[in-house]
TrEMBL record:
<dbReference type="Pfam" id="PF00072">
    <property type="entry name" value="Response_reg"/>
</dbReference>
<dbReference type="Pfam" id="PF00196">
    <property type="entry name" value="GerE"/>
</dbReference>
<feature type="modified residue" description="4-aspartylphosphate">
    <location>
        <position position="57"/>
    </location>
</feature>
<dbReference type="InterPro" id="IPR039420">
    <property type="entry name" value="WalR-like"/>
</dbReference>
<dbReference type="GO" id="GO:0000160">
    <property type="term" value="P:phosphorelay signal transduction system"/>
</dbReference>
<dbReference type="InterPro" id="IPR001789">
    <property type="entry name" value="Sig_transdc_resp-reg_receiver"/>
</dbReference>
<protein>
    <submittedName>
        <fullName>LuxR family two component transcriptional regulator</fullName>
    </submittedName>
</protein>
<dbReference type="InterPro" id="IPR000792">
    <property type="entry name" value="Tscrpt_reg_LuxR_C"/>
</dbReference>
<dbReference type="InterPro" id="IPR016032">
    <property type="entry name" value="Sig_transdc_resp-reg_C-effctor"/>
</dbReference>
<keyword id="KW-0238">DNA-binding</keyword>
<feature type="domain" description="HTH luxR-type">
    <location>
        <begin position="136"/>
        <end position="201"/>
    </location>
</feature>
<feature type="domain" description="Response regulatory">
    <location>
        <begin position="6"/>
        <end position="122"/>
    </location>
</feature>
<dbReference type="GO" id="GO:0003677">
    <property type="term" value="F:DNA binding"/>
</dbReference>
<keyword id="KW-0597">Phosphoprotein</keyword>
<dbReference type="InterPro" id="IPR011006">
    <property type="entry name" value="CheY-like_superfamily"/>
</dbReference>
<dbReference type="GO" id="GO:0006355">
    <property type="term" value="P:regulation of DNA-templated transcription"/>
</dbReference>
Amino acid sequence: MSEPITVVLAEDQGMVLGAFASLLDLQPDIEVVATAADGDEALAAVDRHRPDVLLTDIEMPGRSGLDLAAELNRRGSGVRVLIVTTFARGGYLRRAMEADVAGYVLKDAPVGDLVTALRRVHAGERVVAPELAMAAWDSADPLTERERELLGVVLDGATNTEIATRLRLADGTVRNYLSSAMAKLGARNRTEAARIARDRGWL
């Protein structure tokens, strides 16, 4: 009998985490070696267990699933990343592909689809839910990297002066970047621009 597929499971909702772990433990060829409730804990578990696959949500405390994928990609890790999320956002999928994520599926998919996706990812395939692939190409991100960075800080509730201090920019430069982002997104103010960018998966 071949070795089981080892999995680290990362999900910040306890009930969902437990359900996923129970589901995967029923599979004779899959072994959940660790679970994590936030991104930092997940990265530590990956470092400790060296699993075949990291199955992770996107939005979690600490590092997001996309942050985890980007970090593992930066390290040249052999761990395959499968994202399972409720968010059918084209921006998220584009960022996942840039981080070399091996799979991206939705939580509301049939249970069997999740298990099949995990096996396919382990076998070296790339798996993307069809509706997500369509959304990605219908939703191009118009923002620059710096504009995304500033809008991310806006979501934290920072004022323009606080953003300037934190990022070591002039107040006028911050205003210019945010004005540009607002214009691109058709937003009335910086808070609305940040919300639009977040909802489209660009932050």
